Amino acid sequence: MKHPVLAALFLAVGTALHSQPDKTIRIDFTNPGLIPAAWTLELHPDGTGHFRSQRGDAPRSATTTIEAPDQDRDIQVSPAFAANVFSVAAAENFFQKPCESHEKVAFQGTKHLVYTGPDGKGECSFNYSRDRQIQQLGDQLTSLASTILEGARLDRLHQHDRLGLDQEMETLQEMLGDGRATEISVIRTTLESLATDDSLMERVRRRARELLAKAGN
Fold first, then answer.
1. For the chain, what are the domain ranges?
2. Residue 211: exposed, middle, or buried by beta-carbon count in 10 A (0-12, 13-18, 19+)?
C-alpha cells in the first residue's frame, strides 16, 4: 500500500525539480572591428552550452588565409570551468551591479554578462572592469570563444588548405600557453580528426596529440 504513495511522492519531487528554471550564464560579445564581430556563449552548471558567432562587415585580413565560418553549435566544457563561472556569478551578485570602469583604455569589445536562474537574475556590460573577478571572467569566456573559433578554423583548413594547418596548430599552442585559449577539450573532435589523419604532416598530427593530452579524458 505504501509503494504507490512513495512513487507518487518521488514523481512530484522530480517534477518540481525539473520544472525549476535552469541556471544560465550568457555572454554577448561585440566588436565591429574584429572577425567575427559578434558572438554569444551560453553555459549551464553541468558544462553544457551553446555558441553562436556572426562575421560582421570588417574587411578581410591580409594575413589570414582562411576565416572561421559562422558558428551555431552546442559545446561541453569541464565541470571545473563551469563551476568557476557560476561561482563568480554568485559572488558578484549575479551581475546586478555596474561592471564598466569608464577608464580610458583601449576598446577590446563590449562584453554583456547575463545571469538567469531560480536564485536570482542580473546583467551588466563592460569593455574593461576594475572588478578583478568580472574582468577575469570576461577574459576566460573570451578565451573559450577563441578556442571554439580556432577549432572551426582548423576544420576549414583541414578541408581546403592542409599546408596551412602547421602554422595554425603552432598558433593554437601559443594561445593555450599564454591564456588566449582555454578548455582545449571543447574542440576534441577536431583534434582527434587531425591526430588520426595519416595524410597530414607528422608535425601537425603530433601537435594534435599533444593538445589532446592536455584535454584529458
1. 20-215
2. buried
- For residue 217, the number of C-alpha atoms closer than 13 Å in the C-beta half-sphere is 0
- With beta carbons less than 8 A apart as the criterion, state whether 206 and 182 touch: no
pLDDT tens digits, one per residue of 66-112: 889 999 999 999 999 999 999 999 999 999 999 999 999 999 999 99
pLDDT digits (tens, 9 = 90+) for 163-216: 999 999 999 999 999 999 999 999 999 999 999 999 999 999 999 999 999 987
CA distances from 191 to 18, 35, 142, 202, 205 (A): 35, 23, 20, 14, 9
